[in-house]
Design brief:
alpha/beta; Rossmann fold; 2 domains; 25% strand; binds S-adenosylmethionine
Length: 410
């Protein structure tokens, strides 16, 4: 069975937890600092729903060396025999390296030029995409169509003394993300800007295990995204609707509520824009004005995925007293929300909530309610391949990070 290699995003633990949540820990193995190997064929993984994977690759082989000279020899020998499988036309070639010692950008570019000569000797025209860093970035891959039928991006990942050689078959679509993020008609920096990629991760952590791949060998069988149609994602703090938008894109029904009528209007405008501007969506959404601390959600909800109330927007760390007050306010709302939810859902109901955590000089300050989850009726889910402490999304310039908490009703 062929394997899949995922090159993970800026915070690899988030990508690992996402893959583990969807496909289970048994088929997943982290490789080095930035990659994950899955004992699943690429066609059994729905790459379009993954927020934490940047490069989605098919494993070609494992080279029994981590020495770049050996790898270069291997390529020079094996590339000619594979050229026949490519269609007519000018090829595009790129190389990306992760974790291999002794490889510089200069050396990588020299190898690429050697390979260009090898390919030309076989009578094929080829353009090499020069490396500015050891790995090609998404813009280079997409704009040079390296994942297209005439493209070859070889991805090398050090795995102990060996090297995994994979071919990139899909790159994270940065242009599509940017459109779904920046071009939405209603945005509000006051409630924060949830990046669509992070929204996808939150949904995938809330969704949990996906059904096993269909027992078929048909190469054309569909991806697993089609299994979402009868499932509804509830976001009780929907704000401008990024999470609902991503849920709809994945094929879920979306149900959003928010305390502020203006936010519900924003979500409504944004989700209509999604359906008319980005693409028609097969599923529908429902929105209501509601206080998450006491509302009884009357409609179907399969699981919760949300970014909760993050407290006052902060650009600098406040005084200790002010921070104490902010944490207390947030804590109160979260506790009431979790108590309210626990009354309404059955054992096994799952939720991924992205909650605020504050970066202080002593490290992250967490809400006290996270230590009372058992008493509130929840089990906090842990991951084999990602430590709980690493499941915090933050940028260096941010005071408030988002801690991803995955819960199951006991
Ligand atoms: C961080 S924002 C969520 C942003 C959202 N992810 C988006 O895509 O824009 C938190 C939201 O929680 C809402 N909120 C605050 N307290 C609430 C409560 N008690 N019940 C429901 N919503 C609440 C706020 O109005 C705000 O829109």
């Amino acid at each position: 069975m062929s394997q899949t290699l995922c090159i993970l995003g800026r915070q690899p633990a988030l990508g690992l937890a996402e893959l583990e949540s969807l496909y289970g820990s048994g088929v997943l193995r982290p490789v080095g600092q930035t990659a994950a190997l899955l004992e699943l064929e690429p066609r059994h993984i729905d790459f379009s729903r993954l927020g934490g994977t940047v490069k989605f690759c098919k494993v070609l082989t494992v080279i029994d060396s981590s020495n770049w000279g050996d790898i270069q020899k291997f390529l020079a020998q094996s590339i000619p025999e594979h050229l026949d499988y490519l269609p007519e036309g000018k090829l595009k070639l790129g190389l990306s390296v992760f974790g291999l010692k002794g490889v510089s950008v200069q050396r990588l570019n020299a190898t690429a030029l050697e390979l260009k000569k090898t390919i030309k000797r076989e009578g094929r025209n080829v353009r090499v995409i020069p490396n500015k860093e050891l790995a090609l970035n998404s813009a280079q891959v997409l704009h040079n169509q390296l994942t297209g039928s005439l493209g070859w991006e070889f991805v090398f990942v050090a795995d102990g003394q060996r090297t995994i050689l994979a071919q990139n078959i899909a790159e994270q679509d940065i242009d599509a993300y940017s459109l779904r993020d920046r071009e939405r008609p209603k945005r509000d920096s006051r409630v924060g800007m949830l990046p669509p990629k992070l929204a996808q991760i939150i949904i995938n952590l809330g969704a949990g295990r996906q059904p096993a791949p269909p027992a078929t060998t048909d190469e054309d069988c569909g991806s697993l995204s089609s299994v979402n149609f009868d499932k509804t994602v509830l976001d009780p703090f929907c704000g401008t609707g990024v999470l609902l938008q991503e849920a709809l894109m994945m094929g879920y029904e979306a149900y959003g509520t928010d305390l502020e009528p203006r936010m519900v209007e924003y979500s409504d405008t944004n989700l209509h824009w999604l359906q008319t501007t980005i693409r028609p969506i097969g599923t529908s959404f429902r929105l209501e004005v509601a206080d998450g601390t006491n509302y009884e959600w009357p409609h179907q909800k399969s699981f919760i995925a949300c970014e909760t109330y993050l407290g006052r927007a902060l650009t600098t760390l406040p005084s200790e007293n002010d921070l104490q007050q902010i944490v207390q306010d947030c804590n109160y709302i979260h506790k009431k929300f979790l108590q309210n939810l626990a009354r309404q859902v059955n054992p096994g109901f799952r939720a991924c909530i992205a909650v605020p955590t504050w970066r202080t000089k002593q490290g992250f300050k967490h809400m006290p309610v996270l230590d009372q989850l058992t008493d509130l009726g929840y089990t906090r889910m842990s991951f084999v391949h990602a430590a709980e402490s690493d499941l915090v999304y933050y940028r260096d310039d941010q005071v408030v990070g988002r801690e991803l908490v995955v819960l199951e009703r006991k």
